[in-house]
User: Fold this.
Amino acid sequence: MPDPAASRSTALQGLLSRHSVGPRWLTEPAPSTGQLEQAVACALRAPDHGLLVPWRAVLVPSEQRDALGERFAVFAAAVGKSADDIQRERERAAKGPMLVAWVAHIIPDIAEVPEHEQWMTVGGALTNFLNAMHLMGFGAKTLSGRKCQHPAVTEAFCAADEQLVAFICVGTPSQVGKPRCADNVAAAWSQWHGNAPA
Ligand SMILES: Cc1cc2nc3c(=O)[nH]c(=O)nc-3n(C[C@H](O)[C@H](O)[C@H](O)COP(=O)(O)O)c2cc1C
Assistant:
């Protein structure tokens, strides 16, 4: 019978060891459809006030990468990039074994669930997705840039009331990554010393 304390410790070590792996260091295999679904299921476990699910994930299949690359190129040309940079931007769409677009759908004017709370859920879901991929042995990195706000790219993924947050590249890490810089835990929390109203 599995030892629950050992499982908890393994889960915590998994969370503590997550780090991003850039597309250059990602190789095949990509996650299977089942593994992608499992990561999305974990994303759905993010805290979500009102259960609005203000996000969705869109897989960009391999056969659509060229079409996405053309959209990246239209963006790059529109913002005045050089021919070389336009080509570099076009090629970005082909990088990494799996590419997932993260789309937010924030509903304004909900008194009980202001927009910042919905954004928290979008970020929490993305983080759960990244952690799930990491725990399954995959590497991933979230990448956005100005193109995620340009119509040439956004209109491919978003309805008028949606926003393209970023793309997530996922695959198998080709090498063991460098450890991240040490986290400053002490700076990230404090204790309230009381401040009763006058
Ligand atoms: C929504 C979002 C968009 C991001 N866009 C970029 C990006 O365009 N370029 C980049 O280098 N890092 C980007 N990052 C940061 C990286 O994904 C990564 O988190 C950062 O390099 C820190 O690495 P770590 O995840 O290992 O801490 C983005 C992160 C988020 C959450």
About this structure: The chain has a mean pLDDT of 96. Residues 115-135 form the longest helix (21 residues). The domain at 21-61+95-175 is CATH 3.40.109.10 (NADH Oxidase). Residues 19-20, 141-145, 165-166, 180 surround flavin mononucleotide (CB under 6 Å).
